[in-house]
Amino acid sequence: MGGLDRNQVHRLAALDFIKEHKDIFITGSTGTGKSYLATALGYQACQSGYKVMYVNTAKLMGQLKLAKAKGTILAELKKIERVDLLILDDFGLQPFDPQSRVTLLDIIEDRHQKRSTIVTSQIPVKEWYDIIGEKTIADAVLDRIVHHSLRVELFGESMRRRNSKIENVFL
User: How confident is the model over 22-37, as pLDDT tens digits?
Assistant: First the structure.
């Protein structure tokens, strides 16, 4: 994982960001370890007694659309609001439609400075406006999460590609 040193990992693993209700953005290209790092922090949080929810962002938005159709959206949003750490993996791989934008804003608003969120994305934060789509909602979402967040940018060769090369040597 390029872009992250041992001291940074230890500071993140101390989970002070959860106690301080801060968010973390982990960005970088495919295979650099974003989901791996988010999962490790989520696991550490679970071991420390925190409630954690790990979800793929696009799948979550799909599930919440179904919940809205069934009339259970408020209960689902309440569950998300209550977890100490929400991990939104693969943020922005699919653009947000109008309903998902509003739902994203609801989630962020409910958690703002009360709970922590980790967002992993291949897309740099400065391009999230385009992904969220509608400027007013993008402003509202980003204003709430960007200013109270820690940022980790990972770089380097894909870990999957590197591991594949190692395995192919032994074939």
Answer: 999 999 988 888 999 9
